[in-house]
Design goal:
Strand content: 5-15%
Structural class: alpha+beta
Distance between the termini: 75 Å
Radius of gyration: 28 Å
Oligomer: single chain
Amino acid sequence: MTGGRAVSAARALSLGAVLAITTRFVLPLGPEDPFRGTLIALPLIVASFVALGNWAISRGGQPTPREVVLVEWTFLAVLILAALGRNHLGLLGNPATLDGVLAGGFLLLLGHRALRTLIALRPLLEESGQKRPSSVFFSLPFLVYVAILPWSSFHHAPDGDEPHYLLLTHSLAYDLETDLANNYAQGESLAFMDRTLEPQLGDPVGPSGEMYSRHNVLLPLALAPFYRLAGLAGVLVAMAALAAALVWATLGLAMTYRLLDPTGSLWAYGILAFTAPLLLYSYQVWVEVPAALLTVLGLTLILRAAEGKSHNWSTWVRIGLPILALPFLKIRFVLLAGSLVILASWHAGGSRARRRTALLLALLGGVTASILLFNRFFFQNPLKYHDIDGLRAYAESPITYLKGFLGLFYDCAFGLFAFAPIWFLIVPAFLLLWNRHRRVLMDSLLVPTPYLMLLAPRGEWFGGWSPPFRYGVIALPFMALWLIPLLSDRERGGRRFLIAALGAATLALTLLWIVEPGWTYNLAHGRSHLLDYLSSAMKADVARFFPSSTRPRLATWVWPPLTMLAVSMLWWVPKRGTSAATALGLCAVLLIPALVASSSQRRPTSVIEFEDPWVETSGGQLHPELWVVYRPHYRGGWVLPAGQSISIPVVPGGSRFDLVVELEEPSRAMGGAVLEIRSGSEILKRRPLEPLGRWRRLRVSDLSWSGEELLVLAIRRRSRDTDPEVLLDRAHLEWQ
């Protein structure tokens, strides 16, 4: 940056900081207002974008046309005025809806400015002789992550394992110890959340009542200085910096592999940085982002050492540090570390380098053994929470591995493609990489695949109570590498269509995930918050059209081969594109949801899951409860007591049908019951249920159906002195 532009950037940042401080004291919005944090940070964010733009222009970047800048400033002014005066406008009736619309407006403006800045940075990737990307490629995602922090942190309190990492961080910052007994007793979790925290199931307990976390200490230890400085806000900014560093390091890894096409590198960088799931984890406290960062840094150092034939001790110390740090984040990350050591041996040249690799492998084994022995001595369990018997779960059938592995990508509640469809491009990218960059492909498969295969058969392959693709965050940088050659290929006709369709869908979903952060936390019941919303609105089962690995159905097995074939053909078959391809892609984004909605209301009802939101209940409760660990292991459903009923909107497939109900009969202590089947108020049949307390498939044959009424299932007592309840799993309607 020239001296004049450097001074201009410094002035802009100084002015932004002053305005932000001033805004904090004069802003007429209370602490309970969701836009207060955003509006306070806004001057500094705007100033930072000005500085980045000046930097890009000084290096040859294309400045944004003045008319575009004028439109941005006008739109921003309208949004600010609407946010300040929305309580007096009375628009849209529901204040939450108006807040969501305004938040979407701010996000669209932020995304547009980020896109413009990204395009302006392209000349920095064209500079010859670069070995490392400019630090500005760290600054841009970091700025975007910090910009969304005020809204996201307001609507998303720490959840899942996050509070437990934070409490350990709090203890290290203020007590300089890992014993959490006093922190639990004094309710110190109130420093970063609105409720007191309880110990997690399986947390180790010391002989004198000490209470320890089952989570490793490395991440809390790294975050403790930021927590001591600025509390939760400091931790979240630090996590945003780690996520931005991961994107920056991935671009550096691409340069190391000589994947140097500026256009492909730029768009792959943008997809990694500004779409789910990394965008969601940029403001949350999990170990996967720092683990991915250490993995990318380790691989980059290995490749540069091999390229430069530098095998001195200082080089191998630098290589060893991120590799040996991985098990301290989480013991399961030893698989990533082991894969990196194997790659180091593979790329190493000469006997001296291989001796260094053997020593590194021995050190990794020693570190792992030390962690296990430490846990055994202090916590009486080498794995802290898990036990050796639990590892037998990995001796599963191939179908279990397949369901888990497909679920990471295709599951409608936890899969990568469901939250950011643009990642579908890795399918044709795989084929291209196989032909042109096989070394990159083999390296990027070797590192994360053993780790993902370990997790695939687990009951919580989806990551538990967390945003989607948590375990797969490790693989994101490598999949971003796959996209670079693909996005550099401008000869294919299907390119515009696919990028337009998948990009528009990803943009819409990304806006939704940021505006409604709670919708990224789904239960393992085969649906998502979005599908539940659509099902409730249309009174139909929308989820049945989408794959689920926690509730396998036809779509689970149809979607993977169908989409892989379709995306590959659309990208590779046409030789020349048309000017209308982009418009056709955008039309497809609108047409497909319309077709799904229409089909859900027209296709005959065949399977009913009684806990689905489109099913209406007059009483009873979900089984198992929402927060039960490993919910997919349970044969659950809806517990319906006597005197209560379930009403189901039915799309008929004929005038008669057989009903097959999977249920658990009441226990002997409760007595027998009667299952009553009605069409609206008309009783079709009654079937007695014996008090045997067992699962059975109850078939009721030859039921007549008029068409417009609700299907009602009710439980009746067989005698006055009984109080039965029946667990209903699902029902099948076989139309004749």
